[in-house]
Amino acid sequence: MTTIASAQEALSHWHQALAVATGGKIFTTHGCSWAWQPVRRRLVLLFPENPEPAGLRPALAEGMRLGARRVEAWVNSGADATQLKAAGFSDNAQVSWHAGPLAIPMDRWDGKIRLGNNVPEATGADAAELAVTNLWREASPQLSSGHPALRRVEHAVARTEEGNIVGRGFAQQGLGGQLMVHALAVGSDFRRQGIGTALLHGLSRSMINPLAPVEDEGPTELLAAATPSSADFFTANGLKLLGRGRHMVLRSWA
């Protein structure tokens, strides 16, 4: 059964995988877990239970040393954020957790969903982050064998019949068999055409085990952290609201 706790763990594993795959690092400071993602110059604090200055100060100093342009904190809605606010963090767009099997048929869009990390058009950080799809296949000095961040990751792009990319997204296999959807995006001129739904179905099908008995293949449960602008999309596709969390951003380095 998917819970908010398992959703938080899945998102933490994604940020850790993304950090390691792009040449960054993961580290802890006095009860705080961090992921440094260099291609975005982003330092991420992952669901601290009780963040204290002893854990925040050294990590923020390290962020400054590394050249972080953005520092974020993902926080359980029930956690005490007093020390985060004192350090300069404030709430960003509210996060809502959604989970469930897809409810909308996949034949609503005429384009193609292509799986894999071969995307010649990708540049900069977008191109570098495609390496996360290979991390689970390779040994990493930062992640021991069996580390949950080494779960399978798939990437999908949506292309029109002319071959133009109009959307993309990632999915990472969770510890409970769920698929955590990440960075799902559709070009602003192509929304409300079924492309996002097609991406969800493509990512879901990508994880099906072709060697498993048919009777063992039930509907895949998807998991997503939604913003206010994407919450209705996930609900319309059959995912149910689990609860809410907090996404905070450091507004100053004071």
Written account of the structure:
It holds the Pfam family Acetyltransf_1. This is N-acetyltransferase. With 254 residues, this protein is α+β, with helices and mostly antiparallel strands. The chain has 7 helices and 12 strands. Strands 1, 2, 3, 4, 5, 6, 7, 8, 9, 10, 11 and 12 form a 12-stranded mixed beta sheet that branches.
Helix-strand layout with pairing:
Blueprint (H helix, E strand, L loop, with lengths): L3 H18 L3 E5 L2 E6 L4 E5 L6 H14 L3 E7 L5 H5 L2 E3 L3 E7 L10 E4 L8 H6 L2 H4 L17 E7 L5 E9 L5 E8 L8 H12 L14 E6 L4 H6 L3 E11 L4
Parallel strand pairs: 3-4, 10-11
Antiparallel strand pairs: 1-2, 2-3, 4-12, 5-12, 6-11, 6-12, 7-8, 8-9, 9-10
CATH third-level topology of the largest domain: Aminopeptidase
Helix/strand order? HEEEHEHEEEHHEEEHEHE
Oligomer type: single chain
What's the main sheet like?
12 strands, mixed
Structure annotation, total helices: 7
Could you say what the CATH architecture of the largest domain is? 3-Layer(aba) Sandwich
State the name of the first-level CATH class of the largest domain.
Answer: Alpha Beta
| Strands, total number | 12
Name the average pLDDT: 92
CATH homologous superfamily of the largest domain?
A: Gcn5-related N-acetyltransferase (GNAT)
Strand % is: 25-35%
Shape, principal axes of CA atoms: globular
What's the helical proportion of residues? 25-40%
Q: Supply the number of structural domains.
A: 2
Weakly predicted, low-confidence segments: 210-214
What is the structural class?
alpha+beta
Specify Rg, calculated over alpha carbons.
Answer: 18 Å
Distance between the termini: 41 Å
